[in-house]
Specification:
The complex is a heterodimer of chains A (173) and B (282). Chain A has 173 residues and is mainly α. Helices cover 94% and strands 0% of the residues of chain A. Chain A has helices at 2-14, 19-151, 157-172. The longest helix of chain A has 133 residues, at 19-151. Chain A starts with a helix and ends with a helix. The model of chain A has no long low-confidence stretch (mean pLDDT 89). Classes of the chains: A mainly alpha (173), B mainly alpha (282). The A-B interface holds A 14-18, 20-26, 28-33, 35-37, 39-41, 43-45, 47-48, 50-51, 54 and B 10-12, 24-27, 29-30, 33-34, 36-37, 40-41, 44-45, 47-48, 51, 53, 55, 59, 62-63, 66-67, 70, 83, 86-88, 90-91, 94-95, 133, 136-139, 141-143, 145-146, 150, 210.
């Protein structure tokens, strides 16, 4: 044991092992260790983790955005398709309505024109009858006057009435 | 005349001499350790001040290093233990690497006090002002001691004291009866061996690192003293490249061994936990 102690002492002397020097070196290393641990490795690892998290979040957001974009495009396409269908339907309905309306207006116009023509025809008929009646009366009077002048006698009311009836019958025929 | 050899002492020299008492701890290697501390702090401060999501070049470089190391640590010790083990392992790697490479700078080991033979010229440097921090057994032993203490803390925090005892001395295989007792005795003996193995880890870790860096320093100094001025420039050149490789390898070896120690002492608990969970499920 004593010999071992002597060997250890010899080694310590040869290699300059001494507690003050040993402790000084330990303190130096521990200072490096503690400072690096607290002020270098910790913040750097935290920064790497933050960056990794950011990248992961960014990737997730990118995927979500791509998915949302695809959904939005699909929705937009569906809306446009639906709008096209609706527009086609509306145009067709408007076309049909316009045709019906035009038909109806045409019918109304024809009907109105017929009515106007009937009224005109009626008025012309009435006027014709009035003129004929007036003509008959005038002609009867003229025939009576002529008869009175030719015969030289004063015609009675019955004669005048009979001549007028005969004249009217002749004119009507 | 034999070639002059720039000898490298096995121990670091006190800057103010051993007789200075309180200041004797300030050796040429501890000065380098303080310089390394300063360099690492400067780079870390430059990289981590005003950090932004879009990094500047310092932050970008440091982040790349941290991310690379974290991935390696996570592969070695597992994702569960990695957050706890990473600061220790990364600090060990960075500190050892910078210390090893610092020793390759011109002037380290060649500027100091000694026997003079002219103005600002020495025939032999007795007390160099700078010595690679990892070429001092105090430093490598200190590193190993810190690593083992923090290894113990991480292990205890991860598996608990009882878990550590069970992991070290507990029988594996789930055998019962007489065979189980015999196996338990064997594992008890294996546990004792494991404790001895753990006890000598700081020694092996520190001597390996010290030996490699010290040997490299010696080779470089020896080569620098050969063949006159031209020889002193050309002869060490290949060995500088070799030392670049050795410096990196030793930083990796030290760090990886510590990672393996952590993995060995903490992985058992996870497996044990899974086994128990599996048994419970059955």
């Amino acid at each position: 044991m004593n010999q071992l102690s002597q060997v250890a002492d010899q080694i310590a002397t040869d290699f300059g092992l001494a507690w003050p020097k040993f402790i000084a070196q330990v303190i130096t290393f521990l200072v490096v260790y503690l400072v690096l641990k607290k002020y270098a490795f910790g913040p750097i690892l935290a920064m790497l983790e933050t960056r990794r998290q950011r990248i992961a979040d960014g990737e997730a957001k990118l995927e979500k955005i791509a998915k949302d974009l695809a959904e939005a495009e699909a929705n937009a396409k569906a809306v446009v398709d639906q709008a096209n269908t609706e527009a086609s339907r509306l145009v067709k309905e408007a076309d049909d309505s316009a045709k019906i309306l035009a038909e109806r207006k045409q019918q109304d116009a024809i009907h109105e024109a017929n009515q106007i023509m009937a009224k005109a025809r009626e008025a012309a008929q009435l006027e014709h009858e009035q003129l004929m009646s007036q003509l008959k009366r005038e002609f009867g009077r003229m025939v009576s006057d002529a008869t009175a002048r030719v015969t030289g006698k004063v015609l009675t009311d019955d004669d005048q009435k009979r001549i007028n009836q005969e004249t009217t019958a002749e004119v009507s025929a | 005349m034999p070639p002059f050899v720039l000898a490298v002492t096995r121990h670091a020299e006190s800057i103010f001499g051993e007789e200075m008492g309180m200041l004797s701890f300030l050796t040429n290697s501890s000065v380098v350790a303080l310089l390394v501390l300063g360099i690492v702090m400067f780079i870390a401060r430059k990289a981590t001040s005003n950090m932004t999501l879009v990094p500047n070049k310092w932050q970008n470089g440091f982040e790349a290093l941290v991310e690379f190391l974290y991935d390696k640590v996570s592969d070695l010790v597992g994702p569960k233990v990695a957050p706890k083990a990473f600061p220790l392992l990364a600090t060990l790697f960075v500190f050892i690497l910078v210390s090893n490479y610092f020793g390759l700078l011109p002037g380290v080991g060649t500027i100091g006090f000694g026997h003079g033979n002219g103005f600002l010229s020495l025939e032999h440097v007795d007390r160099p002002l700078l010595r690679p921090a990892t070429a001092d057994l105090n430093m490598t032993l200190g590193l190993a001691a810190c690593a083992m203490i923090l290894w113990l803390v991480i292990t205890i925090r991860e598996v608990g004291v009882w878990g550590f005892v069970v992991h070290t001395f507990g029988p594996k295989g789930g055998l019962k009866g007489f065979v189980g007792m015999m196996v338990a005795l064997v594992f008890l003996f294996v546990g004792v061996l494991e404790i001895v193995s753990i006890a000598i880890r700081p020694v092996t870790l520190s001597l390996r690192l010290f030996g490699n860096v010290f040997a490299g320093e010696t080779v470089l100094h020896t080569m620098s003293g050969m063949g006159g001025f031209i020889g002193s420039v050309l002869a060490p050149l290949p060995f500088y490249f070799m030392e670049l490789l050795v410096g990196l390898l030793q930083a990796i070896v030290f760090t990886m061994l510590c990672a393996v120690y952590i993995q060995l002492s903490t992985a058992h608990d996870e497996e044990h936990g899974h086994d128990e969970a599996g048994h419970d499920a059955h």
